[in-house]
Design brief:
The protein has about 220 residues and is an alpha/beta fold. The protein folds into 2 domains: about 5-130, Rossmann fold (3-Layer(aba) Sandwich); about 150-220, Arc Repressor Mutant, subunit A, CATH 1.10.10.10. It has helices at about 15-25, 45-50, 65-75, 90-100, 110-125, 140-145, 160, 165-175, 180-190, 195-205, 210-220; strands at about 5-10, 30-35, 55, 60, 65, 80-85, 105, 130. The strands form 2 sheets. A 6-stranded parallel sheet has the order 2-1-3-6-7-8, sandwiched between helices. A two-stranded antiparallel sheet has the order 4-5. A hairpin with a 2-residue loop joins β4 (about 60) and β5 (about 65). The longest helix is centred in the C-terminal third of the chain and has 15 residues, at about 195-205.
Amino acid sequence: MHHKKVLIADPQVMFTEGLVALLSANSDYNLKVEKVQRSSESLMINIKELEIDIVILDLNLPDEDGLDLIPVMRTEFPDLRICVLSSYTDIKLVKGAFQAGADGYVSKNNSVEELTRGFSEMFDGHTFLAKGLRITPANNRNRKSNNTSNTVSNYEDGFIIKQKLTRREQEILQLITEAKNNKEIASELYISDQTVGVHRKNIMRKLGVRNTVNLIKFALEYQLV
């Protein structure tokens, strides 16, 4: 039986070493880890040259947002299986991964048996959502709770916080941290001063800050730019 070639893209050294050992010890699924990489560098080249069957992807890579990588891999390699393996279980991220083209989503809190069960489902042509994960709120009460505030909670890290912002807002935040005013930002992005002002207010509202100085400080502290 031909083994399935695996590429793991995850920055956590100890975690990936353990994962490689667990997958190598599980002969039931005939998996072979061909490559482990800590960033997205040369990812597409490695998938092609190593003839990878499945990519195990952490969304929070140091040089790239995993959600941006998924549609690129899906377009370039239609038969590739893409399994997100992440510590993030937020409904928005899980749903976003499937919308981007992922075949499966597993939490790092799930067991290795759950992960390999997911492989079986994915190689059979099905999508797989691991136990404990959701792509819709459990009920209306949860939905209300999730929407009561768009500001940042203390426990959230930079990756999660960044997902609150649209791509345009991220672009504008980057330029704000470069000390550019609304007029300069508008000129660079080919939009109006008023539009920049609206985006700036929305960014501050979402991040829970009241002025530009605190906005820049917050963005740098949480590595949003």
